[in-house]
Each structure stands twice: as C-alpha cells, then as structure tokens.
Amino acid sequence: MAEISPSPPSLKKAKRAKKEDPLQAADSRRLDSLRWNDSLPNDDPFFFLAGSNEGGFLSLEEIDESEYGFLGGVPEPLGVEKKPEGKKRKRGSGDGNSGDGGSCIVQAEDGEKRGTKKQKKKKKKPRDKKKKKEEGESSDNGEKSEPVEGNAEDALNNDDAKNDIDEGFLIDEDEVYAWKELRLHPLLIKSIRRLGFKEPTPVQKACIPAAAHQGKDVIGAAETGSGKTLAFGLPILQRLLEEREKDARLFQKDPDEKPVEKGFMGGPLRALIVTPTRELALQVSDHLKAAAKLLAIQVIPIVGGMSSEKQERLLKRRPEIIVGTPGRLWELMSAGEQHLVELHSLSFFVLDEADRMIENGHFHELQSIIDMLPMLNVSVEQSSQPTTICKTIPSLQRKKRQTFVFSATIALSDNFRKKLKRGLSTSKSSTSDGISSIEKLSERAGMRPDAAIVDLTNASIVAAKLEESFIECSEEDKEAYLYYLLSVHGQGRTIVFCTSIAALRRVSSMLHILGINSWTLHAQMQQRARLKAIDRFRGNEHGVLVATDVAARGLDIPGIRTVVHYQLPHSAEVYIHRSGRTARASADGCCIALISPSDKAKFFSLCKSLSKESLRQFPVNDVYMPEVMKRLSLARQIDKITRKNSQENAKKSWLLRNAESLELAMEDSGSEEETVNSHKQKKIGSLQLKKLQQELNDHLARPLQSKTFSNRFLAGAGVSPLLQQQLEELSKKNPSGNGSSKENKRPGFLVIGQDCVEPLQALRSSGREVCVSVDRKRETRRLAETWKRKKREEKKRTREQQRKERKKAKEGMK
Ligand SMILES: Nc1ncnc2c1ncn2[C@@H]1O[C@H](COP(=O)(O)OP(=O)(O)OP(=O)(O)O)[C@@H](O)[C@H]1O
C-alpha cells in the first residue's frame, strides 16, 4: 500500500511521460478501427469537430405562466427488465419530456383542454393509447391533468380506467410477491407494477410494516439512493386508501352522514412532507404522484421561487398530500392560507433530510410550522377551528398523527446512534447541538417514544456500490485534472461539486471555453433557471452539471456515473450526500475528490469521520497532460481578456446609467492622445483574443491525444461517443455525392481509437489503494515524542535510584 505523498505530483512527470511509447499505454485497451475513403473538404480531417456541441437544449415554457412539475420522481426502475413498450424513452434527444428519468415538465395554461382532447382521441384510436398515456404521464404535473375524478373504487369500476390500469405494467403480478408480503393495498401493488419495482428495498421492507400496519412513528436512516421516499410514501398512501375504504363502508351504514369530498376536490390536508430544497420537494412530490397515480389522491409541491398565486390556486383544490420547503410553507401558513392552517386532520408529518433541516436557514421556519401542528393529546373537535369547507371529519381520520424523520446521515454521529438505541424518551434535549435539535424537533412534532428506529447505515455510511477515489494535485492544476477527467473519461453524466459560487463560475466558464457543454446550479439562480439546468442535464446522456451543495441532497437523476468533488465539502454529511448522487438504487458509480495541499487536513479528518483507512488514487495517464495544459493555458488567457472586457463594459454602462439618471452629459475626460491609445489597446486586445480563440479551436478540433501521435491516427483513450458517431457518419458519405474529383480523394485512412472509458472502469482497472487513515508524519512525530518521554522518565528513575543508593551507602558508612 502506498502512502499519500506530502506534495502534489509535478507536471514535469507528464512531460517525461510524453517521451514514452504511447502504444504501450494503449496496449491493454480495446482498439476500434474505422476506415473511410471519403474526400474531405478540409485538410484537417477533424475540422468538422470544431465547435460541435453534444446534447440537445430543451425548451421550457414560462414557469410563472404555466403549471410546472419535476418529473424526476417518475422513477427509473433499476435492475428491472422492462417490457418493450415501457422502455421507449429517448436519451438526450432534445425532447424535454424524454429524458431517462423524465424531466422538468412545464405545462401551459390550457393543459386541461388539451388533456380532455387527448382523452377523446384515446377512445377513437385504441392503438395510440399507450403512446398517449405515456405523454399523459409525463405531463401530469399540472393541476389540470390530474386523473383524480371520483374515488379509487370508482376508478376500478370504470372500464376505461381498468384498461388504462392494465396497460403500462412493467412487471407481472407473480413477480411482486415480495411486495404482497408487506400487505399493501392492491391498488398500491398495481402502482408498483407500473413503476417496475420488483421488490422492496431493505429500508422499505423495514419501514412499511412498522409505519403502515403498526401505525408507528419512524426514524429512518439508510444509504443514499436506497428508496427512502417510498419507505415513508407508501405507508401514507396505504393508510389514506384504507381509511377511504372504511369510510365508504361506514357511509353505507349511515346514510345521514355525508361523505368527505374526495377525488378532484380533494379533502383536508392529511400529510405534510417538508424537504430542505425546492428541487427535492418537486422530486419527492412527483415520486409520490407516480405512486398515487391510480389512487385519486392529490399530491402537490409548495416551494419558493414559484408564483405564489399559482400555488394558492393549487391549494384551493385541497390536496391531501403536500410536499414543500419550510420557507414557502411558512409564508403561506403565516398568511393564513386555509388549507395549510386547517391541520386538524393531518395524519402524517414527515421531515425528509432531517439533519439538513435543523441547520441555519431552515430551523426557525420549521419550528414555526411544527408549532402550528395540533397537539396530539387534544381531541380533533377541540383543536379544529370552525371552517366552512370541512363540514365533517370522519372518525377514522382521528387516529394519531404519525411522524417520520428520514435521512442518509442522521446516524452519522456515534452519539446519535447510541441515543437512537437507548430510545428517544430517555434522551435529554438541549438546543446546543444539532443532534439534540433533531430529537427536540421530532418530540415537538409529536414523535412518540416508541418510534421504530430503522438504522440501515454501515460504518462508512456511503452507498454500497460507490467507489471512492482522489487525485492529489496543486490548487492551480485542479482545472486541468477536471478537464482531463471530462475529456478522456467523459462517459455518462457527471456532477462537479464546488463549495463556493465563485469557484463554480470559474469552473463553468473554463469548461465553456474548452468546449465542454455544462450547466450550472446554485442557490443564487432563479428557480426557473435551476429547473431548466436540471432538465437539460437530465436530457443529456453525457451531460456535466457544475453545482454547489444545493444539488447535494436528494437529487435523483438516472445515469449519473461520476461525482467530482472539485472543492471538498465542509462536512462529512455533505460529502456523503454529494457522493450519493451516483451509485443509486442498484446502480454503481464513482466519486473523485481533487485534493490540493491545503485540502489535506480536511481530507484526513473526512476519512477519519467515515472510518476510512485507505482510498483509491484515481489513475491519471500523464501522456495527455501536456496537451491538457496547453489547452488550459489558452483557455485561461481567453478567460482573462474576456473578463477584463466585460468588467470594463460593465463599468462604462454603470457610469452611463448613473449619468443618465442625474441628467448629466458624459464628456470624454481624457486627452485625444489617451483616447487614441485606448482604442489601439482595444484593437490589440480583440486581435489577440481572436488569435487565441483560433489557436484553441485548432487544438479542440483534434481529439485529445499525446503529442507523439500523428494527426492521421487516433489512438489511446478519448474517442468519445460523439466523435465515434461523427466519424461513422463521415465514412458513410458518398464520395461522388459532394462533387469532388477523384484526385482530391484521400487514400484509405485508419482511425484507431479506444472506446472512451468511464472513470469507474479506469478506477477499477488501475486505481491504486493509498493509505489515508492517518497522517503518517503526525503519527511518526507522536511516536517519537512518546519514545523521548519514556526515555526521560527512565533516566529520571535511574537518577532517583542512584540517589537513593548513594544515600543508603552514606548512612551505612555512618
Ligand atoms: N423498490 C425499489 N426498487 C428499485 N428501485 C427503487 C425502489 N424504490 C425506489 N427506487 C428508485 O431508487 C431511486 C432512489 O430512491 P430515493 O430517491 O427514494 O432514494 P433516497 O434513499 O431517498 O436517496 P437520498 O438519500 O439520496 O435522498 C429512485 O430512482 C427510485 O425510483
């Protein structure tokens, strides 16, 4: 096992490596070859790659003017064989509704009308049903297309609905016996078959019986991507369905009692789910919507950054389940929004990502929301305020409220683990630390001492199929290594996490200049832009998202293969959540931390908190680094000039604006000579920029390869799917079709290239295990000090002994 070196590797190594035979490096790799005889319109065979952009931009309609939703929740069944019709989803096709796991859907105001038309069409063309239904699925986030007319039983009795239900199952009935063992309602089983989940995940297996059948409160801790949303979502739906059926039976017995309004008109609020981020709320809401698809139960998201009026309109429909962020929820509650303050029938209160909720920025609003919840020992009649809407509260809804608290990192602290084992009732609450605050909040929300505690996290807490690694480099070289990762191993979706928005901006600007398509996500962005970024990232199979920790929790996007920690997070919890964006459910994935000398102390303590003794070092092939550094140096120069220009322009326009507002005429303060000079400077600057851009374009037009290769051969890593496709297309072109003469035709041209290897493969094949558990230097120092102390003590003891002996001898002589 090697030891982490005290200083970052020098890039001289890269230069040395340049001289090595690159074929040796490519030896063990699979080589693909492709021939073409086409005549090329340019001397450079790769001219056509310049400026090419992979990935389609999707169009979104105006959020504030339309219904919105986030189809991330329509879950991608993992490890499940789908029937062919269920599989038909395009990847990165540029269609906003066709991303793998769905996408952010915006539905225009006339959604209802369109929805009705679709239904009519369905009857006429039964063969189109499936297709239309899929479309309906991806647009059911809007208020008007909810399939919630009538109750669940009506839905079953309805022939059309029956046909709808029969379609779209991804798995057969006999395959879901593991779910049936959990005694879930038949309609829920049908929903699960549509989602394509063959069996419950361990956390679902553990939570559903306790929450749905024993009516217990639950504290749930399980790894990221383990299906916690349904672990609390299914018990909620189960209880609402059971109560609805019992109510229906009761009403038949007592014809005087009016049934509670159901279906389209909703009813009192039954479940309130609070999440720390808007994206997560939208995602959880869509996940539950998908699970409640056949149940005539309404689920809506209430989040900041969206039109309040629209959300108030949605609330007028009295949805049974609300998923929201503390800020907007409290804003509406404190404004007296009827549906949100009439909480007498609330049966579930859920804190998702509970440990994040107690951090600054959420705590006070959350506390205020919790204080609005009715006391559990007060009877419903006493606690409810008189209302005009809720005339009758069925007796069955008067059961105790259940509280669910979930997170992947709730049990990270040993103390909390111990406390969980001892039980909540015995713990003393204090507001001084976060752990106690979770307890305090849970108790305040009505969590009972006999709550079921489900802790399925292992010592390191990260997802089981996640491969963790690091690259040691200097702070300045982080950009180079990131570019290396994205261009040499740019397979699958990648999230690059930055801790600061300034770093995020710099990284994304560099990637942009270097021709790597990426999107950004941070808290200072408008909500519409945030959703758009996620939507586009989701729609691109090899997309790159540069994000702050706003994307660290909960985001469930299929196909994220790699997470890069460009800057280390502030806590182990955030590291776990960031890394957990990959290797979700049954999939695998890898994360790579870029560690500069100043990150080391943080990195060691992170490894210590996660009980890591060793970690893999990501294998970097140094032959690529000279070219990487060249491109980066050009990109940096371009960035510098562009920044300077835009700063000057901003300054100028600020001056002009202010002068205009003060009705002052702007005069050129400088002399004629100064003006001429400044013009000259500008001209030189723009010429320099053009030159640099051209030079960079020339480099980018060639696939990344080591300097020793001829341009007529591509070899080594770096033949991305995009390049592969472009080469294939070019090779298919008919030479006579473009009117070129025979003399102009190139001779047979051989392209040798290795399939782009994704980081996880590279890590598995040549990642080197490095000891990270202890800072060796510090440990050696500590051992040396202990040894010296022991020596000192030994000497002292010997001296004491000698003194005593001398004394004895003196006394003897007397
Ligand atoms: N029983 C199941 N079988 C297969 N896939 C499932 C199952 N339940 C949920 N999933 C899928 O697993 C993925 C992760 O689920 P979910 O988002 O609920 O995880 P999580 O534990 O809440 O993760 P995080 O801690 O990161 O928020 C989702 O895409 C979901 O659709």
Overview features:
12% strand, binds adenosine-5'-triphosphate, alpha/beta, 814 residues, 7-stranded parallel sheet, 30 helices, disordered N terminus, 9-stranded mixed sheet
Layout: helices, strands, pairs:
Blueprint: E1 2-3, H1 12-18, H2 22-26, E2 31-36, E3 67-70, H3 84-87, E4 104-107, H4 111-124, H5 129-138, H6 152-157, H7 159-166, H8 177-180, H9 186-195, H10 202-213, E5 218-221, H11 228-253, E6 271-274, H12 278-291, E7 299-302, H13 308-316, E8 321-324, H14 326-334, H15 338-341, E9 348-352, H16 354-357, H17 363-372, H18 380-383, E10 402-407, H19 414-422, H20 434-444, E11 452-455, E12 466-472, H21 478-488, E13 493-497, H22 501-513, E14 518-521, H23 527-539, E15 544-547, E16 560-565, H24 572-579, E17 589-595, H25 600-609, E18 614-617, H26 625-661, H27 672-700, H28 721-732, E19 749-754, H29 759-766, E20 768-771, H30 776-813
Parallel strand pairs: 1-20, 5-10, 5-11, 6-8, 6-9, 7-8, 9-10, 12-17, 12-18, 13-15, 13-16, 14-15, 16-17
Antiparallel strand pairs: 2-19, 3-4, 18-20
Helix pairs in contact: 10-11, 11-12, 14-17, 21-26, 26-27
The structure holds adenosine-5'-triphosphate.
Adenosine-5'-triphosphate is lined by residues 75-78, 197, 200-201, 204, 224-230, 408, 554, 556, 580, 584-585.
